[in-house]
Design goal:
- This protein has two domains: 215 residues, Orthogonal Bundle (Arp2/3 complex 21 kDa subunit ARPC3); 149 residues, 2-Layer Sandwich (Alpha-Beta Plaits).
- A hairpin with a 2-residue loop joins strand 4 and strand 5.
- With 459 residues, the protein is an alpha+beta fold.
Protein backbone atom coordinates (compact mmCIF):
# COMPACT_ATOMS: atom_id res chain seq x y z
CA UNK A 1 0.00 0.00 0.00
CA UNK A 2 1.70 3.19 -1.18
CA UNK A 3 0.55 6.56 0.13
CA UNK A 4 1.65 9.99 -1.02
CA UNK A 5 2.43 12.54 1.66
CA UNK A 6 0.59 15.20 -0.33
CA UNK A 7 -2.57 13.18 0.20
CA UNK A 8 -2.40 12.24 3.87
CA UNK A 9 -5.63 10.96 5.32
CA UNK A 10 -7.77 13.10 7.60
CA UNK A 11 -6.92 11.36 10.87
CA UNK A 12 -3.16 11.64 10.22
CA UNK A 13 -3.66 15.31 9.39
CA UNK A 14 -5.48 15.85 12.69
CA UNK A 15 -2.83 13.94 14.65
CA UNK A 16 -0.15 16.27 13.27
CA UNK A 17 -2.27 19.37 13.88
CA UNK A 18 -3.18 18.44 17.47
CA UNK A 19 0.40 17.39 18.14
CA UNK A 20 1.69 20.77 16.95
CA UNK A 21 -0.88 22.56 19.12
CA UNK A 22 0.45 20.60 22.12
CA UNK A 23 4.03 21.47 21.16
CA UNK A 24 3.04 25.14 20.83
CA UNK A 25 1.58 25.12 24.34
CA UNK A 26 4.67 23.40 25.69
CA UNK A 27 7.03 25.86 24.01
CA UNK A 28 4.96 28.88 25.00
CA UNK A 29 4.98 27.89 28.68
CA UNK A 30 8.53 26.56 29.06
CA UNK A 31 12.16 27.33 28.29
CA UNK A 32 11.81 25.25 25.12
CA UNK A 33 10.19 28.29 23.52
CA UNK A 34 11.87 31.15 25.39
CA UNK A 35 15.51 31.32 26.48
CA UNK A 36 16.40 34.44 28.46
CA UNK A 37 19.83 34.94 30.07
CA UNK A 38 21.96 37.96 30.87
CA UNK A 39 23.70 37.66 27.47
CA UNK A 40 21.14 35.94 25.29
CA UNK A 41 17.41 36.23 24.61
CA UNK A 42 16.01 33.89 21.98
CA UNK A 43 12.39 33.04 21.16
CA UNK A 44 11.33 29.82 19.38
CA UNK A 45 7.60 29.68 20.18
CA UNK A 46 6.66 30.60 16.61
CA UNK A 47 8.35 27.47 15.15
CA UNK A 48 5.28 25.15 15.43
CA UNK A 49 3.37 27.71 13.34
CA UNK A 50 6.02 27.41 10.62
CA UNK A 51 6.09 23.60 10.80
CA UNK A 52 2.30 23.54 10.35
CA UNK A 53 2.63 25.80 7.31
CA UNK A 54 5.39 23.64 5.84
CA UNK A 55 3.80 20.23 6.41
CA UNK A 56 0.08 20.97 6.29
CA UNK A 57 -1.99 23.85 4.87
CA UNK A 58 -2.27 27.61 5.43
CA UNK A 59 -5.48 27.04 7.40
CA UNK A 60 -3.54 24.84 9.83
CA UNK A 61 -0.70 27.31 10.29
CA UNK A 62 -3.35 29.99 10.88
CA UNK A 63 -4.82 27.86 13.68
CA UNK A 64 -1.35 27.45 15.18
CA UNK A 65 -0.90 31.22 14.89
CA UNK A 66 -4.11 31.70 16.88
CA UNK A 67 -2.86 29.35 19.60
CA UNK A 68 0.50 31.13 19.67
CA UNK A 69 -1.26 34.47 19.99
CA UNK A 70 -3.59 33.29 22.75
CA UNK A 71 -0.61 31.98 24.74
CA UNK A 72 1.22 35.28 24.32
CA UNK A 73 -1.89 37.19 25.37
CA UNK A 74 -2.25 35.03 28.48
CA UNK A 75 1.36 35.57 29.54
CA UNK A 76 1.06 39.30 28.94
CA UNK A 77 -1.92 39.44 31.33
CA UNK A 78 0.24 39.02 34.45
CA UNK A 79 0.62 42.19 36.50
CA UNK A 80 4.43 41.92 36.71
CA UNK A 81 5.09 42.22 32.94
CA UNK A 82 6.73 45.30 31.44
CA UNK A 83 4.69 48.22 30.15
CA UNK A 84 5.49 47.24 26.56
CA UNK A 85 4.26 43.67 27.10
CA UNK A 86 1.03 44.97 28.65
CA UNK A 87 -0.18 46.18 25.25
CA UNK A 88 -0.59 42.51 24.30
CA UNK A 89 -3.18 42.02 27.07
CA UNK A 90 -6.79 43.22 26.66
CA UNK A 91 -6.98 43.34 30.47
CA UNK A 92 -4.02 45.68 31.01
CA UNK A 93 -3.56 47.76 27.86
CA UNK A 94 -6.60 50.01 28.13
CA UNK A 95 -7.47 49.14 24.51
CA UNK A 96 -8.93 45.61 24.59
CA UNK A 97 -9.75 45.35 20.88
CA UNK A 98 -6.36 46.69 19.77
CA UNK A 99 -4.58 44.28 22.12
CA UNK A 100 -6.59 41.36 20.80
CA UNK A 101 -5.73 42.30 17.23
CA UNK A 102 -2.07 42.67 18.15
CA UNK A 103 -1.55 39.56 20.23
CA UNK A 104 -3.86 37.13 18.41
CA UNK A 105 -4.68 38.76 15.07
CA UNK A 106 -1.07 39.48 14.08
CA UNK A 107 0.01 35.89 14.93
CA UNK A 108 -2.92 34.43 12.97
CA UNK A 109 -1.95 36.66 10.04
CA UNK A 110 1.64 35.43 10.36
CA UNK A 111 0.39 31.83 10.28
CA UNK A 112 -1.62 32.45 7.11
CA UNK A 113 1.17 34.31 5.30
CA UNK A 114 3.85 31.77 6.22
CA UNK A 115 1.51 28.97 5.10
CA UNK A 116 0.99 30.63 1.71
CA UNK A 117 4.75 31.17 1.30
CA UNK A 118 5.34 27.47 1.93
CA UNK A 119 2.65 26.64 -0.64
CA UNK A 120 4.57 28.69 -3.22
CA UNK A 121 7.88 27.12 -2.15
CA UNK A 122 6.51 23.58 -2.50
CA UNK A 123 5.25 24.30 -6.02
CA UNK A 124 8.82 24.72 -7.24
CA UNK A 125 9.73 21.61 -9.27
CA UNK A 126 13.52 21.93 -9.33
CA UNK A 127 14.45 23.87 -6.19
CA UNK A 128 11.75 22.95 -3.68
CA UNK A 129 14.11 22.32 -0.73
CA UNK A 130 15.99 25.55 -1.43
CA UNK A 131 12.85 27.68 -1.31
CA UNK A 132 11.52 25.89 1.76
CA UNK A 133 14.88 26.64 3.43
CA UNK A 134 14.63 30.32 2.42
CA UNK A 135 11.12 30.68 3.87
CA UNK A 136 12.24 28.87 7.03
CA UNK A 137 15.35 31.03 7.37
CA UNK A 138 13.44 34.30 7.20
CA UNK A 139 10.25 33.15 8.92
CA UNK A 140 11.25 34.70 12.24
CA UNK A 141 11.83 38.07 10.55
CA UNK A 142 8.47 37.86 8.76
CA UNK A 143 6.88 37.32 12.18
CA UNK A 144 8.72 40.32 13.63
CA UNK A 145 7.78 42.48 10.63
CA UNK A 146 4.08 41.71 11.04
CA UNK A 147 4.03 42.20 14.83
CA UNK A 148 6.03 45.45 14.78
CA UNK A 149 3.91 46.80 11.93
CA UNK A 150 0.68 46.10 13.83
CA UNK A 151 2.20 47.63 16.99
CA UNK A 152 3.04 50.80 15.04
CA UNK A 153 -0.50 51.04 13.69
CA UNK A 154 -2.45 50.21 16.86
CA UNK A 155 -0.12 51.66 19.52
CA UNK A 156 1.82 54.46 17.76
CA UNK A 157 2.66 56.24 21.05
CA UNK A 158 5.17 53.51 21.98
CA UNK A 159 7.37 54.34 19.00
CA UNK A 160 7.56 50.79 17.57
CA UNK A 161 7.23 50.10 13.85
CA UNK A 162 8.73 48.43 10.80
CA UNK A 163 12.15 49.97 11.50
CA UNK A 164 12.48 47.81 14.60
CA UNK A 165 12.44 44.72 12.38
CA UNK A 166 15.66 45.87 10.71
CA UNK A 167 17.35 46.61 14.03
CA UNK A 168 16.41 43.14 15.24
CA UNK A 169 17.55 41.56 11.98
CA UNK A 170 21.15 42.62 12.61
CA UNK A 171 21.32 41.14 16.13
CA UNK A 172 23.16 37.99 17.19
CA UNK A 173 19.96 36.64 18.75
CA UNK A 174 18.19 36.88 15.40
CA UNK A 175 21.02 35.15 13.54
CA UNK A 176 20.99 32.22 15.99
CA UNK A 177 17.20 31.97 15.86
CA UNK A 178 17.17 31.99 12.04
CA UNK A 179 19.64 29.09 11.82
CA UNK A 180 17.90 26.97 14.47
CA UNK A 181 14.46 27.63 12.97
CA UNK A 182 15.59 26.68 9.47
CA UNK A 183 17.25 23.50 10.75
CA UNK A 184 14.19 22.37 12.74
CA UNK A 185 11.68 23.05 9.97
CA UNK A 186 13.83 21.28 7.35
CA UNK A 187 14.26 18.35 9.75
CA UNK A 188 10.48 18.07 10.11
CA UNK A 189 10.10 18.26 6.34
CA UNK A 190 12.69 15.51 5.90
CA UNK A 191 10.90 13.24 8.39
CA UNK A 192 7.54 14.03 6.79
CA UNK A 193 8.85 12.82 3.40
CA UNK A 194 10.77 9.83 4.76
CA UNK A 195 9.96 6.09 4.45
CA UNK A 196 9.36 6.16 8.21
CA UNK A 197 6.45 8.57 7.85
CA UNK A 198 5.12 6.59 4.90
CA UNK A 199 5.03 3.52 7.13
CA UNK A 200 3.21 5.56 9.77
CA UNK A 201 0.67 6.44 7.10
CA UNK A 202 0.27 2.77 6.33
CA UNK A 203 -0.34 1.98 10.00
CA UNK A 204 -2.99 4.68 10.13
CA UNK A 205 -4.73 3.76 6.87
CA UNK A 206 -4.79 0.03 7.59
CA UNK A 207 -5.99 0.33 11.18
CA UNK A 208 -8.70 2.76 10.06
CA UNK A 209 -9.85 0.30 7.40
CA UNK A 210 -10.02 -2.37 10.11
CA UNK A 211 -12.52 -0.14 11.96
CA UNK A 212 -10.57 -0.35 15.20
CA UNK A 213 -12.14 2.97 16.09
CA UNK A 214 -14.85 5.11 14.61
CA UNK A 215 -12.71 8.08 13.66
CA UNK A 216 -15.21 10.87 14.12
CA UNK A 217 -16.44 9.46 17.42
CA UNK A 218 -12.84 9.03 18.47
CA UNK A 219 -11.91 12.64 17.77
CA UNK A 220 -15.13 13.93 19.33
CA UNK A 221 -14.28 12.03 22.51
CA UNK A 222 -10.70 13.29 22.35
CA UNK A 223 -11.88 16.89 21.99
CA UNK A 224 -14.30 16.50 24.90
CA UNK A 225 -11.54 15.03 27.06
CA UNK A 226 -9.25 17.96 26.20
CA UNK A 227 -11.94 20.48 27.19
CA UNK A 228 -12.59 18.63 30.44
CA UNK A 229 -8.86 18.50 31.17
CA UNK A 230 -8.64 22.26 30.70
CA UNK A 231 -11.53 22.78 33.11
CA UNK A 232 -10.03 20.39 35.63
CA UNK A 233 -6.66 22.14 35.28
CA UNK A 234 -8.28 25.43 36.17
CA UNK A 235 -9.91 23.80 39.20
CA UNK A 236 -6.56 22.32 40.31
CA UNK A 237 -4.79 25.67 39.86
CA UNK A 238 -7.45 27.50 41.85
CA UNK A 239 -7.27 24.90 44.63
CA UNK A 240 -3.49 25.09 44.99
CA UNK A 241 -3.39 28.88 44.99
CA UNK A 242 -6.17 28.93 47.61
CA UNK A 243 -4.29 26.43 49.76
CA UNK A 244 -1.08 28.41 49.34
CA UNK A 245 -2.87 31.57 50.39
CA UNK A 246 -4.40 29.76 53.39
CA UNK A 247 -0.98 28.40 54.41
CA UNK A 248 0.61 31.86 54.25
CA UNK A 249 -2.23 33.40 56.24
CA UNK A 250 -1.87 30.67 58.86
CA UNK A 251 1.76 31.72 59.21
CA UNK A 252 0.96 35.39 59.52
CA UNK A 253 1.40 36.47 55.88
CA UNK A 254 -1.27 38.04 53.71
CA UNK A 255 -1.05 37.97 49.93
CA UNK A 256 -2.00 41.16 48.07
CA UNK A 257 -4.74 40.66 45.52
CA UNK A 258 -2.36 41.18 42.58
CA UNK A 259 0.07 38.57 43.95
CA UNK A 260 -2.76 36.09 44.39
CA UNK A 261 -3.82 36.71 40.77
CA UNK A 262 -0.26 36.27 39.47
CA UNK A 263 0.18 33.01 41.37
CA UNK A 264 -3.03 31.65 39.88
CA UNK A 265 -1.93 32.92 36.47
CA UNK A 266 1.42 31.07 36.71
CA UNK A 267 -0.21 27.92 38.07
CA UNK A 268 -2.48 27.74 35.02
CA UNK A 269 0.52 28.16 32.72
CA UNK A 270 2.26 25.31 34.53
CA UNK A 271 -0.74 23.02 34.23
CA UNK A 272 -1.20 23.80 30.53
CA UNK A 273 2.43 22.84 29.97
CA UNK A 274 1.91 19.56 31.84
CA UNK A 275 -1.28 18.89 29.86
CA UNK A 276 0.59 19.38 26.59
CA UNK A 277 3.18 16.81 27.70
CA UNK A 278 0.37 14.40 28.64
CA UNK A 279 -1.29 14.88 25.26
CA UNK A 280 1.95 14.25 23.36
CA UNK A 281 2.45 11.11 25.45
CA UNK A 282 -1.07 10.00 24.52
CA UNK A 283 -0.29 10.51 20.82
CA UNK A 284 2.80 8.32 21.17
CA UNK A 285 0.68 5.67 22.88
CA UNK A 286 -1.94 5.81 20.10
CA UNK A 287 0.77 5.45 17.46
CA UNK A 288 2.28 2.48 19.30
CA UNK A 289 -1.15 0.84 19.45
CA UNK A 290 -1.69 1.36 15.75
CA UNK A 291 1.80 0.05 15.00
CA UNK A 292 1.08 -3.13 16.97
CA UNK A 293 -2.32 -3.52 15.26
CA UNK A 294 -0.68 -3.09 11.84
CA UNK A 295 1.98 -5.71 12.62
CA UNK A 296 -0.75 -8.09 13.69
CA UNK A 297 -2.65 -7.26 10.50
CA UNK A 298 0.43 -8.05 8.39
CA UNK A 299 0.92 -11.39 10.14
CA UNK A 300 -2.70 -12.38 9.51
CA UNK A 301 -3.30 -10.97 6.04
CA UNK A 302 -2.86 -12.39 2.56
CA UNK A 303 -0.52 -10.11 0.63
CA UNK A 304 -2.21 -10.55 -2.76
CA UNK A 305 -5.86 -10.01 -1.82
CA UNK A 306 -5.64 -8.23 1.59
CA UNK A 307 -8.05 -10.85 2.95
CA UNK A 308 -7.25 -12.87 6.04
CA UNK A 309 -4.65 -15.57 5.46
CA UNK A 310 -4.98 -19.12 6.78
CA UNK A 311 -3.52 -18.22 10.19
CA UNK A 312 -5.66 -15.12 10.60
CA UNK A 313 -8.90 -16.71 9.40
CA UNK A 314 -8.74 -19.78 11.61
CA UNK A 315 -7.69 -17.69 14.59
CA UNK A 316 -10.83 -15.54 14.19
CA UNK A 317 -12.96 -18.62 13.50
CA UNK A 318 -11.72 -20.31 16.66
CA UNK A 319 -12.59 -17.26 18.77
CA UNK A 320 -16.05 -16.92 17.22
CA UNK A 321 -16.93 -20.59 17.66
CA UNK A 322 -16.46 -20.24 21.41
CA UNK A 323 -19.07 -17.48 21.72
CA UNK A 324 -21.72 -18.08 19.05
CA UNK A 325 -25.43 -17.64 19.68
CA UNK A 326 -28.13 -19.81 18.06
CA UNK A 327 -31.83 -19.11 17.68
CA UNK A 328 -34.77 -20.55 15.74
CA UNK A 329 -34.27 -21.65 12.15
CA UNK A 330 -31.43 -19.23 11.49
CA UNK A 331 -27.94 -20.67 11.15
CA UNK A 332 -24.26 -19.89 10.87
CA UNK A 333 -22.36 -20.99 7.76
CA UNK A 334 -18.88 -22.13 6.84
CA UNK A 335 -18.10 -21.72 3.13
CA UNK A 336 -15.24 -23.02 0.97
CA UNK A 337 -14.89 -22.07 -2.68
CA UNK A 338 -12.30 -22.21 -5.39
CA UNK A 339 -12.02 -20.96 -8.95
CA UNK A 340 -13.05 -23.40 -11.63
CA UNK A 341 -10.20 -24.44 -13.97
CA UNK A 342 -7.92 -21.85 -12.41
CA UNK A 343 -4.77 -23.67 -13.59
CA UNK A 344 -5.94 -23.23 -17.18
CA UNK A 345 -6.30 -19.46 -16.59
CA UNK A 346 -2.73 -19.23 -15.32
CA UNK A 347 -1.39 -21.40 -18.13
CA UNK A 348 -3.23 -19.61 -20.96
CA UNK A 349 -3.08 -15.98 -19.80
CA UNK A 350 -0.22 -15.87 -17.32
CA UNK A 351 0.06 -15.39 -13.59
CA UNK A 352 -0.64 -11.65 -13.76
CA UNK A 353 -4.10 -12.36 -15.14
CA UNK A 354 -4.56 -15.13 -12.59
CA UNK A 355 -3.66 -12.76 -9.76
CA UNK A 356 -6.09 -10.18 -11.09
CA UNK A 357 -8.88 -12.75 -11.13
CA UNK A 358 -8.11 -13.71 -7.53
CA UNK A 359 -8.14 -10.07 -6.43
CA UNK A 360 -11.48 -9.48 -8.16
CA UNK A 361 -13.02 -12.53 -6.51
CA UNK A 362 -11.64 -11.42 -3.15
CA UNK A 363 -13.22 -8.00 -3.63
CA UNK A 364 -16.62 -9.54 -4.48
CA UNK A 365 -16.39 -11.84 -1.47
CA UNK A 366 -15.64 -8.87 0.76
CA UNK A 367 -18.57 -6.92 -0.69
CA UNK A 368 -20.95 -9.87 -0.32
CA UNK A 369 -19.95 -11.22 3.08
CA UNK A 370 -17.76 -8.61 4.76
CA UNK A 371 -20.54 -7.10 6.87
CA UNK A 372 -21.90 -10.42 8.14
CA UNK A 373 -18.80 -12.58 8.27
CA UNK A 374 -15.06 -13.06 7.93
CA UNK A 375 -13.40 -13.77 4.58
CA UNK A 376 -10.04 -15.40 3.94
CA UNK A 377 -7.77 -16.84 1.28
CA UNK A 378 -6.08 -19.94 2.62
CA UNK A 379 -3.94 -20.82 -0.40
CA UNK A 380 -3.87 -20.81 -4.19
CA UNK A 381 -7.38 -20.22 -5.51
CA UNK A 382 -9.09 -21.46 -2.34
CA UNK A 383 -11.20 -19.01 -0.34
CA UNK A 384 -13.15 -19.46 2.88
CA UNK A 385 -15.99 -17.52 4.50
CA UNK A 386 -17.41 -17.81 7.98
CA UNK A 387 -20.79 -16.13 8.46
CA UNK A 388 -20.99 -15.23 12.14
CA UNK A 389 -24.36 -13.42 11.85
CA UNK A 390 -27.48 -15.55 12.07
CA UNK A 391 -29.24 -15.63 8.67
CA UNK A 392 -31.73 -17.92 6.96
CA UNK A 393 -30.86 -20.33 4.17
CA UNK A 394 -32.91 -18.21 1.75
CA UNK A 395 -30.92 -15.09 2.65
CA UNK A 396 -27.67 -16.99 2.13
CA UNK A 397 -28.76 -18.28 -1.27
CA UNK A 398 -29.65 -14.75 -2.39
CA UNK A 399 -26.17 -13.57 -1.44
CA UNK A 400 -24.51 -16.55 -3.14
CA UNK A 401 -26.42 -16.02 -6.39
CA UNK A 402 -25.47 -12.34 -6.41
CA UNK A 403 -21.83 -13.23 -5.75
CA UNK A 404 -21.76 -15.82 -8.56
CA UNK A 405 -23.30 -13.28 -10.94
CA UNK A 406 -20.47 -10.85 -10.09
CA UNK A 407 -17.86 -13.56 -10.63
CA UNK A 408 -19.27 -14.26 -14.10
CA UNK A 409 -18.69 -10.59 -14.97
CA UNK A 410 -14.92 -10.80 -14.38
CA UNK A 411 -13.20 -10.24 -17.73
CA UNK A 412 -10.71 -12.86 -18.92
CA UNK A 413 -10.89 -12.75 -22.75
CA UNK A 414 -12.80 -15.86 -23.90
CA UNK A 415 -12.56 -17.68 -20.55
CA UNK A 416 -15.66 -17.77 -18.39
CA UNK A 417 -14.83 -17.25 -14.72
CA UNK A 418 -16.86 -19.25 -12.22
CA UNK A 419 -16.56 -20.77 -8.77
CA UNK A 420 -17.54 -24.03 -7.14
CA UNK A 421 -18.86 -23.50 -3.64
CA UNK A 422 -19.40 -25.80 -0.68
CA UNK A 423 -21.38 -24.63 2.36
CA UNK A 424 -21.78 -26.23 5.77
CA UNK A 425 -24.66 -24.84 7.82
CA UNK A 426 -24.89 -25.42 11.56
CA UNK A 427 -27.36 -24.50 14.27
CA UNK A 428 -25.41 -25.79 17.24
CA UNK A 429 -21.75 -25.57 18.34
CA UNK A 430 -19.29 -27.45 16.11
CA UNK A 431 -15.51 -27.91 15.88
CA UNK A 432 -13.71 -25.97 13.15
CA UNK A 433 -12.10 -29.11 11.69
CA UNK A 434 -15.51 -30.75 11.38
CA UNK A 435 -16.97 -27.65 9.67
CA UNK A 436 -14.04 -27.51 7.24
CA UNK A 437 -14.48 -31.19 6.40
CA UNK A 438 -18.24 -30.88 5.76
CA UNK A 439 -17.83 -27.76 3.61
CA UNK A 440 -15.00 -29.42 1.68
CA UNK A 441 -17.22 -32.44 0.99
CA UNK A 442 -19.92 -30.08 -0.31
CA UNK A 443 -17.33 -28.33 -2.50
CA UNK A 444 -16.25 -31.67 -3.98
CA UNK A 445 -19.89 -32.52 -4.71
CA UNK A 446 -20.34 -29.16 -6.41
CA UNK A 447 -17.43 -29.94 -8.71
CA UNK A 448 -18.68 -33.48 -9.36
CA UNK A 449 -22.05 -32.12 -10.46
CA UNK A 450 -20.48 -29.82 -13.05
CA UNK A 451 -18.96 -26.83 -11.23
CA UNK A 452 -20.25 -23.21 -11.23
CA UNK A 453 -22.74 -23.93 -8.46
CA UNK A 454 -23.13 -24.13 -4.72
CA UNK A 455 -24.06 -27.05 -2.51
CA UNK A 456 -25.35 -26.51 1.03
CA UNK A 457 -25.18 -29.32 3.58
CA UNK A 458 -26.00 -29.49 7.29
CA UNK A 459 -23.09 -30.00 9.64
Amino acid sequence: MQLRNSQINLSTHLYILFGLVAVELLMSFSFLGYIHTSTLSVTFAFIPVMVAGCLLKPADSTILGLVFGLCSMWKASATYVSNVDKIFSPLLSGSPLNSLLLSVGSRALFGFIIGMLYVLAKRSKKHKIFWIAVVSLFGKNIHALIVYSVMGILFPDLGYGIINTFYEFLSLNNFITMLITSFLVLLCWKIYNSPFFERCQQYEAVTNSMNLTKQWNYFAILTAVMILMLLFSGAVALYFVNRMNFMLMANGHTLPETTYYDLLHLQIQFLLGILSIAFLTALIFIFSRKHAAYRDFEANTDALTSLLNRRGFFHILSNFLKNLNFSGSNAHYFIILDVDQFKNINDRYGHQTGDRVLRDIAAYLKDSFGEIGSVGRIGGDEFVVFIHDLITKEELETILRHFMHNVHSIYCEDEKISCSIGVASFTEPKQENFLYQKADEALYESKRQGRDQYIIVSA
